[in-house]
Amino acid sequence: MWRRKHIGVKIAGYVLLLLLAIPLIVLVGVSLNPGVEQIFPPQGISLRWYYNLANRSGFIGALQLTLILAVGSTIVSTTIGLLVGIALTRFEFWGKDLILTLILSPLIVPQVVVGMAFLVTLSGLGVVSSLLSLSLLHCVITLPFTARAVVSALATSSRSLEEAAQSLGATPARAFLSVTLPIVSPGVIAAAIFAFVTSFENFTASQFLVWDRTTLPVELYNYVQTESDPPAAALSSLILLPVVLFVVVFNRFIAQHMFSGRL
Amino acid sequence: MAVVNIRNVSVSYGDQQVLNSVSLTMESGKFIAVLGPSGCGKTTLLRVVAGFSEYSGSVEIDGKAYDAIPPHKRNIGIVFQDYALFPHRSVEENIAFGLRLRRISRADIEQKVTQLLDLLQLQALRSRYPSQLSGGQRQRVAIARALAVDPKVLLLDEPLSALDKKLREEMQVELRQLQQRVGITTMFVTHDQEEALALADKVVVMNKGNIGQVGTPSEVYARPRSRFVADFIGKSNVFEATLDKSEGDALVCKLAGGETVRIARSGEVRSGQEIHFFVRPEQLVLCKPESPAADGAKLAGIVRHVVYKGSNESIHIELAGSKMVEAQVVQSRGWNIGDAVVVGWNANDALILAE
Ligand SMILES: Nc1ncnc2c1ncn2[C@@H]1O[C@H](COP(=O)(O)OP(=O)(O)O)[C@@H](O)[C@H]1O
Ligand SMILES: [Mg+2]
Which residues line ligand 1 (CB under 6 A)? Predict the structure, then answer.
């Protein structure tokens, strides 16, 4: 009885995975067509449309901006997340809960609203859309992931570990670096990867702040408004790439290390 | 070896006074047990000595004030209740942690670690990680790690409470032998009175942030000063009475129900004084009605409950005024629930509680 249920669950799982994967497989397949038709399965394998993309300066520029934003906001929000996490878990001060709620709020507030709010506020301040305003936005969007991961990692790592290190002669800073940091780092790395992907694929909020330069997801959206041909499929497939990488790394690296307590 | 002097140490969190002017001396090389119910401030006292807790008062080691010295410069070994082993380091690396911070040559570290692995019988586990160890093994690693840096004092926070009963008894013996071999001044805190009595040179009984009594295990067991200590260390039957007169080595007094009993004489007492006295369960004498009773008392009661404990039996008896007492008898006379019984004691086994 149990066994049959088990198999049922497995089958349901695979069907679900397939449903998720089919559109993506079709998308990648279409992008590999050598001809201009959008058909699946592809009639041959060719990277023609990827080269085509590479020759369009709009896409290359968008890719550059997207990468700059993703790398920059990941570094900034991981650093801030770490500092905020330490402050929230290691020190007592008034308004702790409020700060955490504020930091986490972009997770709950619809992205359209976040984007709108940034647009209105920044133009009110006389700041025109620029790399700066987009960077700010991406840091705010990614901070919840890093801050939450750091807070939960630090909260579960027992305080007595650092104290034990101190009793053995380590300064408080040394105790944090040699005991707590190695324990929380897998969680923090996972959060950083999550932040990177979140920034890389963000469309909804970003579209409010793009100016004559756009990010890759916004560029794709603009492009398919007017045309729908294999370059669009190639572009979409490229956006998928970091997500797939994320899943692979997450499974192979993080899931393995996050729970074993050993690096 | 070090002498630790704790003087008038107080700690409070908000309005809660957790330690209330605690003073205590730990003699060089002695094993001191701090015994008290959970929440009485034992861990806080350890944290004060280790430097992790803010306090008023002073901690002196070998005559030197330690109050301004941060934890990492105190050189005090501490074994936390959860052992606090570094999960990402092997047994060997855990033990070597403190040595590596001290500019000691690799060869010397290796030698010291091996020596400790031998001392605590951990040789076979040296490259394991904490998650691959049993509770007793973890505890030994935590002790080895603390001893590695030759601390002045060793502090143990309920070191045996996470272990099961049989292992706990084995570890008690081991811990005591280890402490004697290393000769380090040690304070261990526990809520288990048997453990404290079995292990310590000196027992400090704590209650709600105050020290109730300090003494050797036999002193605190045989001569508890307060009702709290009497109740906490072993079981005891406490009676309220009014003093009548002294008669030779005994004092004659009256219980609330009017029965006259005799108890051991002690200190200055005066007629008419309200007192408390106690009798240990193993010192209550049970007889059938009409047979000759002990000299101290002759109280009629009814057996309400019998608990078989293998080597002995504990008999719960209801006396007049629904007062319950517990007697421990080695060889059962076959007491049954509902039996009429006479409870007595020898006068010198019934002791007045000073507070
Ligand atoms: N960091 C803290 N903040 C507030 N209260 C605390 C803190 N640490 C301990 N206490 C309180 O102090 C009292 C004594 O705690 P503790 O020393 O841990 O007791 P024990 O170890 O004897 O069980 C408890 O009532 C506990 O709630
Ligand atoms: Mg405690």
Answer: B 13, 18, 36, 38-44
